[in-house]
Amino acid sequence: MTDWANRNCLVIRIAESLLVISPKMAGFGSLGPKTKNLVVAGGLTGFVFGVYFYTMRAVGGSDELQVAIDKYETEKSKHDP
């Protein structure tokens, strides 16, 4: 087996073990299926919003692209008749 294949097998084994262990460790065994689904949906929604707001904050910090577009438009209007 190649090194790449060994890494993939290791990642798959870790993911499988987390899927099997995490509900028991978190104490979800006594909850009903709909409640478990709501907990997972809430966690996923929180993660998605967190990534969204982090990305918007990171990207929205500067207007370099808009400045470059404005400069290009100004140069273009000078050269066009």
Question: Could you give a short description of this structure?
Answer:
With 81 residues, this protein is mainly α. The protein has helices at 3-26, 33-59, 64-79.
Q: Decide which structural class fits the backbone.
A: mainly alpha
> How do the SSEs run, as a string of H and E?
HHH
Q: Cα distance, first to last residue?
A: 66 Å
Using DSSP, what is the number of strands?
A: 0
Can you give the mean pLDDT? 76
Form type: elongated
Explain what you see:
The chain folds into 2 domains: 1-29; 31-81. 83% of the residues lie in helices and 0% in strands. The mean pLDDT is 76. 0% of the residues are buried. The protein is an all-alpha fold.
Note the main attributes of this structure.
elongated, 3 helices, 81 residues, 2 domains, mainly alpha
Strands, helices and their partners?
Layout: H1 3-26, H2 33-59, H3 64-79
